[in-house]
Specification:
With about 170 residues, the protein is α+β, with helices and mostly antiparallel strands. It has a single domain (about 10-150), classed as Alpha-D-Glucose-1,6-Bisphosphate, Chain A, domain 4 (2-Layer Sandwich). The chain is about 25% helix and about 30% strand. It contains 3 helices and 7 strands; from the N terminus they run E-H-H-E-E-E-E-E-E-H. Strand 4 and strand 5 (about 85-90) form a beta hairpin. The protein is globular and about 45 Å long. The two termini are about 30 Å apart. The model has no long low-confidence stretch (mean pLDDT about 95).
Amino acid sequence: MENYDWSKFMRRINIKVPIQEIYDYWTTQEGMEKWFLRLGEFSNVEDLLKDRNTPIQKNDNYKWMWHGYSDELVETGRILEANGHDLLQFTFAGECIVTVKIYSEIDETIVEVIQENIPTDENSKVQYHLGCSNGWIFYLANLKSILEGGIDLRNKKMELIKMINS
């Protein structure tokens, strides 16, 4: 394990829908709240809130909240890239950068999430490498579930704590 790179990880999943449909679920408030967030607000560089169905753009800001967590857990950050088709990049969990790539591989649509720039102190290894990795595994599975079958796997009860699905 001494050669393990704690500063990044990658997670991938195949989803049987077109690339653009997946991209749209990542890049609008309406889409993000169907599989990932309780609240997913986006604002432009003038800090004006975007409409729920307006796609995000580079340099937009976000405010995110999750089901199963109180209003005190709020993630804010900035969209670093949004190409309108298959690539999204944003700041996350402090100094981390998340890149989402959507592409075809062997007749499947693949969603790839790379989280990098993770600090390598012991707390960050646990919180941002292991914790975020586990979170992305669940949320990618939920995205697949929503898009392929319509079933939302998220825990939406704040009273249920330490759940793998919130």
